[in-house]
From TrEMBL:
EC number: 2.1.1.100
Gene: STE14
Annotated GO biological process: methylation
GO molecular function, one term: protein C-terminal S-isoprenylcysteine carboxyl O-methyltransferase activity
Name of the protein this chain belongs to: Protein-S-isoprenylcysteine O-methyltransferase
Taxonomic placement: Eukaryota, Fungi, Fungi incertae sedis, Zoopagomycota, Kickxellomycotina
Length: 274
């Protein structure tokens, strides 16, 4: 897509990140921001405030309790809202025309499964702390989980920043004017970085909490979910970009177990589990 076409398609209204013509563009250069209608603006502000409060409570808990089971739960209370804040922030800065309340990614599959999974993992942590307090004492596994979760967060956000307007939380089966095939940056090394990032973040958090049941359940459910999703997504991408995507797919791994080559289907059938 040419620069003129891009400019014509998206004329920014008000924004902190107005593109300056002389500014050299890099992959991290934000796109432009738009002004929201008041209702959306208030909802976003209220949600961000709530997430900030949860993070604040988590930080206090860790500051007071230190490297203990309670302190680790405090870190969890920081990392969980941080993920949602980054999701929103990446859309707002790099894909501002798609910003909405959904950008916080509170119900990624359109249902309550995400909340249920998080509640179950918190319940597991509480019950196991009560029954086997010693087993929850932080150690190497906790550190490994924390590192995995942080790496996952970085990979996920990097993918969103790199793909910019081509990144859509819903799988596109129609090509928009601002949807280009992304093969550079982190997409050069693997073709589903945001899924790998989310997987690593979610598994890392359960490892950090030393939650064996949730760890196995998350790995199984997420593995199955991403396997189906990438399969469908790749068929849509072949449909949208043709041989360009097929070549890219051939030379770039997924790094997700069981998701390798995908299938070639020129016609995209019925909808995915968006
Ligand atoms: C939630 S994003 C996930 C992107 C990618 N699977 C990842 O894990 O980073 C889904 C959207 O990204 C688009 N997409 C996926 N890979 C892409 C690529 N390499 N270039 C451009 N768009 C891509 C799909 O068309 C879909 O609309």
């Amino acid at each position: 897509m040419s620069d003129e076409a891009r400019e014509a398609a998206f004329t920014p209204k008000v924004g902190l990140f107005r593109r300056r013509p002389a500014m050299a563009e890099r992959w991290w250069t934000p796109v432009v921001s738009i002004d929201y209608d008041d209702h959306l603006g208030h909802n976003i502000a209220a949600t961000a405030c709530f997430l900030g409060v949860v993070m604040g409570v988590g930080m206090c808990l860790t500051a007071v309790s230190g490297w203990t089971a309670t302190g680790i739960f405090g870190i969890y209370m920081v990392l969980l809202p941080l993920y949602h804040i980054f999701e929103y922030q990446c859309v707002a800065l790099y894909n501002p025309h798609r910003v909405s309340m959904e950008s916080f990614m509170f119900n990624p599959d359109g249902g309550n499964h995400y909340y249920q999974a998080m509640l179950v993992s918190i319940a597991e942590y509480a019950v196991e702390c009560w029954l086997f307090n010693n087993a929850k004492t932080p150690g190497l596994i906790t550190l490994l989980g924390l590192a995995l979760a942080l790496c996952g967060q970085v990979i996920r956000s990097l993918a969103m920043i790199t793909a910019k307007t081509s990144f859509n939380h819903l799988i596109a089966n129609r090509r928009e004017v601002d949807h280009d095939l992304i093969t550079h940056g982190i997409y050069k090394y693997e073709r589903h970085p945001s899924y790998v990032g989310f997987f690593s973040w979610a598994i890392g958090l359960q490892l950090m909490l030393k939650n064996p049941l949730s760890l196995v359940a998350f790995a199984g459910v997420l593995g199955y979910f991403f396997c189906r999703r990438t399969n469908y997504e790749e068929r849509t991408l072949v449909h949208l970009f043709g041989p360009q995507y097929e070549n890219y797919r051939r030379r770039t791994p997924t790094l997700i177990p069981f998701v390798s080559k995908g299938m070639r289907t020129p016609n995209v059938p019925e909808g995915p589990d968006n």
